[in-house]
Specification:
By secondary structure, this protein is an alpha+beta fold. About 30% of the residues lie in helices and about 15% in strands. β12 and β13 (about 285-290) form a beta hairpin.
Length: about 600
């Protein structure tokens, strides 16, 4: 990169002299604000008779000419041109070379002197060659400055970086494997027993089972630059707060084998009990959600005190569906469970904001499992096991995938490398959107809902709100909830982070939209999936491939069932809990959850763990 004095033609002839003529062209070194003659370095000088025109071919050496300040090399400008953070050490508008240097600045000077005493042309040539072949970063000077002169980030700057990362669903780090060794491209001339598309729950669990149970090799490909799928979390650098990138995820289950599975790595990635509570802003009050006795009393001015009174109240307000044994839509189902008043105050507007559809346009199944408590229990879930990974989900995923038989590559689009993998994968497990896999069929896109996240980093040693999650069911705001991650495990920090969530139909696919049109379209994709399974050994698993919302425990259970279905239920003493005398799993059609011939201990949760 060259920095020219304003007005100098870039086409001027340039040459490099072994040593500048000090008498005719003084080259000075900026140090403590005082120019100091120095001729050891060999800057490239523009071959011109115009005094003071100097061309800097090595701007990181900060060799400046004895010319007006406006034409001197500006470190901040150079940083901006190279995409590096800038800083004025002496305050606004003060050149960096007009102030007393820090110790690190002096250390950088020593490094420069050592470099300058060698042959600069040889050094530049070596750097250029190594950079060309990708052996070192292209901007080595920028790397040196960034290491020796780290720029302290302001609260506003850190908040801007976080907001941008969350809004674009991009990691703050360029890649994040949670400490796991990973690649950025598919290894050449290597074959695997199983190739898995997606490093989320479904893909990671199946890869681990093949590696640990059957000693088979797997390639796990992820188009994002991190592992963990939508469960991915990270520590925000400024505050030190552990948070999710794709919205809060709270793990809960009643399934024994799922709990056994997640705690297999308890020594390295421990899970700890966490009982989640949610409140909603309803008619100017913060009231418990799901609905319990306190919610009804506070919202509808009732005076219920016992479970029996709550049961009787619900029985009095419930509105039967028009058809005796079947509710036609989500609105009818909700009113049949909580009555007209609670439906309108708690569920009607929230459903519209969440799905951008009126409740009567959605399947009855959506509100069939609305949790309603007949007691004072404020917890959002009632499952036996309610836990969070104390070191974060990303660390847990890193342990799951940490096996000699598993190769992980990040930032790789499967559809761009699919041809190169032909004949190299024994089986393929696809966990992405099923309509994306079969997009050449021209059947059309399945409908999903997504979320826009709006994050803010605040100076606050306490809390921004009373609970980790506050829902906003009403029409007074357009976001659905605010999450404050500091509440989880009561993290200590002088800052706090809040994230507002807005439901949208654009962005990453999160939630399948349950209506008849989408169900019919999915059936057509399911037929293609069954054919692909028989002909090409491609299996479809997970919520996107199955076009069905799974809680985290159900996603793990679904992946374990699929593994058993494909491989004939091999012995798995580390997690097996099934009833004695049971047979093997029944193989199901592609795209569906495999059906088991046996009963499992416990039940999967029916309350959403990521939308509260």
């Amino acid at each position: 990169m060259f920095v020219l004095k304003s007005g100098v033609s870039p086409n001027s002839k340039r040459s490099c002299s072994p040593r500048p003529n000090i008498s005719s062209r003084a080259v000075v070194y900026a140090y403590r604000g005082q120019p100091k003659k120095r001729s050891q370095c060999r800057p490239c000088v523009k071959d011109t008779n115009t005094p003071g025109d100097v061309l800097h071919s090595i701007p990181s050496l900060l060799v400046v000419s004895k010319v007006p300040a406006a034409s001197r090399f500006d470190l901040n400008l150079w940083k901006q041109m190279n995409g590096l953070p800038t800083q004025n050490f002496g305050g606004e508008g003060v050149p960096h070379y007009a102030t007393t240097p820090t110790m690190r600045y002096r250390l950088m000077n020593c490094v420069r002197r050592l470099l300058c005493r060698k042959n600069c042309i040889l050094l530049l040539s070596a750097v250029a060659i190594l950079s060309y072949f990708g052996l070192i970063p292209k901007s080595v000077p920028g790397l040196i400055i960034g290491r020796l002169l780290p720029t302290p980030q302001t609260l506003e700057g850190a908040s801007r970086v976080l907001a941008n990362a969350v809004k674009k669903s991009k990691t703050i780090k360029r890649y994040d494997g949670g400490g796991l060794k990973f690649g950025k491209s598919i290894p050449r001339k290597k074959e695997w027993d199983v190739c898995i598309v997606g490093a989320g729950l479904s893909g990671s669990v199946i890869a681990e089972r093949y590696a640990s149970v059957l000693d088979k090799t797997s390639l796990v490909m992820e188009s994002r630059t991190h592992i963990g799928g939508n469960c991915y979390d990270f520590v925000e650098p400024k505050s030190g707060i552990l948070m999710n990138l794709y919205g809060a995820h709270l793990f809960h289950t009643g399934l024994e084998r799922v709990y056994k599975y997640i705690t297999k790595w308890q020594d390295k990635a421990p899970w700890k009990r966490y009982d989640h509570e949610v409140v909603g802003w309803l008619d100017g009050k913060l009231l418990p959600i799901p609905v319990n006795i306190n919610t009804v009393n506070g919202l509808l001015e009732e005076s219920i005190t016992t479970p029996e009174e709550m049961d009787q109240w619900l029985k009095n307000v419930q509105v039967p569906c028009k058809k005796k044994d079947k509710c036609a839509n989500a609105e009818e189902m909700a009113k049949s469970r909580v009555g007209k008043d609670l439906f309108e105050k708690v569920f009607a507007t929230y459903t519209k904001k969440q799905w951008d559809k009126e409740p009567k346009e959605l399947d009855a199944l959506l509100t069939a499992r609305i949790p309603v408590r007949n007691n004072f229990d404020p917890r959002y879930f009632s499952d036996k096991y309610q836990v969070l990974p104390s070191k974060g989900y990303t660390k847990w995923f890193a342990e799951v995938l940490n096996h000699k038989n598993i190769d992980v590559v990040l930032g790789v689009d499967y559809f761009k490398v699919r041809k190169s993998l032909e004949g190299r994968c024994g089986k393929t497990i696809f966990t992405g959107p099923i309509d994306r896999y079969f997009q050449d069929s021209k059947l059309g896109k399945l409908e999903y809902r997504s979320i826009n996240f709006e994050a803010e980093l605040l100076k606050n040693s306490g809390y921004y709100q009373t609970h980790s999650v506050v829902n906003y069911p009403g029409p007074e705001v357009d976001f659905t909830r605010i999450v404050e991650y500091k509440h989880y495990f009561h993290q200590k920090s002088d800052y706090t982070i809040t994230v507002k969530e807005y439901s949208t139909d654009k962005g990453d696919p999160y939630y399948p939209v349950p209506n008849p049109k989408n169900h019919e379209l999915y059936k057509k994709y399911q037929e293609l999936a069954e054919k692909e399974e028989k002909e090409k050994n491609v299996y479809f698993v997970g919520r996107l491939a199955s076009y069905k919302y799974f809680n985290m425990d159900a996603a793990i259970d679904n992946a374990l069932d699929m593994f058993n279905s494909i491989e004939g239920s091999p012995a798995q003493p580390d997690i097996d809990d099934e009833v004695a005398g049971a047979g093997k799993k029944k193989t199901s059609s592609a795209g569906e959850k495999p059906t088991a011939a046996v009963k499992k201990k416990g039940e999967a949760s029916t309350v959403s763990d990521s939308i509260n």
